[in-house]
Write a structure and sequence with these properties.
- There is one protein chain.
- It contains 22 helices and 2 strands.
- The chain is mainly α.
- Among the domains are: about 35 residues; about 80 residues, no CATH class.
Length: about 500
């Protein structure tokens, strides 16, 4: 134990190993931040921090935070593009509220330092909290912590001003707390459900999929309790009262933002879906059919949507942009898109979901860090690495990677190699756990339900950042797989390491 640590800190679990992990983690992230490259959004425009410029959908997070800091408004500013300013939809306000604090106190140009520090700190807390996930499986918690702490996908996200890292951190705290709760079925208290309600409320206020997960969670909870080997120890009275107490806390947290959405959009809901997202899903679905250009696919979709709108008596909504915010047409457009999408062949829909799920699970996510470090020189190659479209042969693929230089190549193979190794060992871990650890079967099924829910909820859209909240579960089973493989490689007693 480190002699300079306060006894209470040591008892908390911060020993020599934790100090070493923290030092390496800090050095890695300081190095990445120092070598990040600011870019101009347009020729002769202002230099913008890579933390902003490389963020996916950044204007819905740091852009809204800037509006909050300057005008006190939850609106997406046009900044340097041609879009008009519009009220924030889909996303909850939590990320923007957090980003607005350093932007207000430090200024727009200095705030990225605080944003990256905050997100890296959250990643460390996330990795430390995930240690509890290893307990039901009696595997090395430090190995699990390290796989999350130095996960390339998560490290890349921690440097960008978007919501994925915040959502993943909150979701890991939720998983950790739920795992500890279910491991002591005779000690479940009403306050336990209050904390679950708080965490679910914060997830809903971070990303729109948090609301969908909150609706799904009661079913997953019921299934977990049914499969629990000690379910007879769970007090039904506490369970019922606890559930409604948690629901009350959750409702209190999401109500202010729901009222705001009702006042702005006429919908009493914590999230307001954009038809642009449905349009993109439909476009991805039709892409898998092949044979048509993107323009032809857009024309086909427009014809389908307009026909459905006319049939439903909503002719006035036809020919509108997919991103329309016209109050009277939002619901009509959403219904038309959903009807059109699920009228497509079921085989095509299944193919789209499976294809997107595989890409989400196996995509390395190197392109965001490549852009962040200013290494992206060959745009076709960057697109190829990010999406794997157009890869007709290994020789052409390797030639395009080589054209981007050694830095680009190292990052790509590091990210991709880590992801492939984690998926391989994770599959071994899942197989072993389901076959040999029947006492923890309930939590294993819960994990699989969560992974399945997120992958289906993303539908036809896929990207490695969507995997962020699933990384603790994926790394848990990778840890189990590595613990099984390690003895064959001469590494002994990995399960005893602390």
């Amino acid at each position: 134990m480190l002699s300079f640590l306060h006894p209470k800190v040591a008892r908390f679990g911060f020993d020599r190993t934790q100090a070493l992990l923290l030092v390496i983690f800090v050095l890695v992230n300081v190095g990445l931040f120092m070598y990040s490259v600011d870019t101009r959004p347009y020729p002769d425009g202002p230099l913008v921090s890579a933390t902003y410029q490389s963020a996916a959908d950044g204007q819905r997070y740091w852009g809204v935070a800037l509006s909050l800091a300057e005008k006190g408004s939850f609106s997406v500013p046009p900044l340097w593009d041609s879009r008009t300013e519009y009220p924030l939809t889909r996303s909850g306000p939590l990320t923007s509220l957090i980003f607005a604090i350093p932007i207000k106190l430090l200024g727009f140009d200095i705030a990225p330092i605080a944003i990256v520090i905050l997100q890296c700190a959250l990643l460390y807390v996330m990795a430390f909290a995930a240690r509890s996930l290893a307990k039901p499986f009696q595997v090395n918690p430090t190995l699990l912590q390290g796989l999350i702490l130095f996960n390339p996908n998560l490290i890349g996200l921690s440097h960008l001003a978007q919501s994925d890292l915040f959502f993943a951190g909150l979701f890991t705290l939720f998983l950790s707390y739920f795992t500890r709760l279910m491991s002591q079925p005779d000690n479940i208290r009403i306050r336990s459900f209050l904390w679950l309600g708080v965490l679910l409320g914060l997830l809903t206020m971070t990303r729109d999929i948090g609301f969908a997960f909150s609706l799904f969670f009661p079913a997953a909870l019921f299934m977990t309790i049914i499969l629990h080997p000690a379910r007879s120890l769970i007090s039904k009275k506490r369970l019922v009262f606890g559930f409604f107490a948690g629901l009350l806390v959750y409702t209190v947290l999401i109500t202010p933002w729901s009222i705001r959405n009702y006042m702005v959009f006429g919908q009493l809901s914590p999230t307001i879906s954009q038809t642009s997202q449905l349009h993109y899903n439909y476009l991805r679905l039709k892409y898998l059919e092949g044979g048509n250009s993107e323009e032809q696919r857009n024309q086909y979709i427009a014809a389908q949507i307009n026909a459905l709108l006319v049939d439903e008596g909503n002719t006035h909504c036809a020919e509108k942009s997919p991103s329309t915010s016209h109050e009277g047409c939002i619901r009509a457009l959403q219904k038309a898109y959903l009807t059109a999408i699920f009228s497509e062949p079921k085989l095509l829909i299944s193919k789209a979901v499976v294809y997107a799920a595989v890409r989400t699970l196996f995509s390395g996510g190197s392109s965001r860090l490549v852009n962040y470090l200013g290494l992206s020189k060959n745009e076709p190659s960057a697109s190829l690495m990010a999406t794997f479209y157009g890869m007709t042969g290994l020789r052409n693929f390797m030639a395009e990677i080589k054209a981007n230089g050694i830095g680009h190549t190292v990052i790509f193979f590091t990210f991709t190699g880590f992801t492939l190794l984690a998926r391989l060992t994770g599959l071994i871990g899942i197989y072993w756990a389901l076959r040999h650890w029947s006492d923890s079967r309930y939590i294993q099924i819960f994990h699989l339900l969560i992974v399945g829910f997120f992958l289906v909820a993303y539908f036809a859209v896929s990207t490695s950042r969507f995997r962020a909240p699933l990384e603790p579960i994926l790394m848990l089973y990778a840890t189990i797989g590595l613990s099984l493989i390690a003895p064959a490689l001469g590494v002994k007693n990995t399960h005893e390491l602390k």
